[in-house]
Amino acid sequence: xxxxxxxxxxxxxxxxxxxxxxxxxxxxxxxxxxxxxxxxxxxxxxxxxxxxxxxxxxxxxxxxxxxxxxxxxxxxxxxxxxxxxxxxxxxxxxxxxxxxxxxxxxxxxxxxxxxxxxxxxxxxxxxxxxxxxxxxxxxxxxxxxxxxxxxxxxxxxxxxxxxxxxxxxxxxxxxxxxxxxxx
Length: 183
Fold this sequence. Notes:
Elements: H1 8-28, H2 60-65, E1 70-72, E2 78-80, H3 81-91, E3 95-99, E4 102-109, H4 110-120, H5 126-138, E5 142-144, E6 158-161, H6 162-165, H7 178-182
Antiparallel strand pairs: 1-2, 3-4, 4-6, 5-6
Helix pairs in contact: 4-5
Region (Disordered): 29-59
InterPro entries: DEP_dom, WH-like_DNA-bd_sf, WH_DNA-bd_sf
Organism: Cyclophora tenuis
């Protein structure tokens, strides 16, 4: 705030010179590290054979193809949990519902879940859709609003997606289990 900087172009020019000056003062003015581990590797054949060979990096695509948390859809394909949750989040009729003077936000009925699964995953029979909904409940994608242990069926009990169920944690898409917390 030492000088008036003016408009956008002046501000950008000021920031570029400030960044360059800061780099020269704080980074370029320091001597290079003498640590051999930080040196640029050479391709010469006269390198020391006693040194460890660098490990080959796995490509990112190998991790993308094998996600840690898969959900097997009714047609047998594996997709990531977040994909199923986002699809259900966009398709389910999530509303605030009242039961015994308690409001349950962003929830839906069991019958809505079964009908939505039949529609979006092309499941012809209601029993198959109910089994898949119970599988999603077992995988903790769907919860009963009170965690009473009610199974998803074609009924009027209220259920909520995991991403709406535990808003007190930062990553609501991760299924938090004891294994995740302790490791």
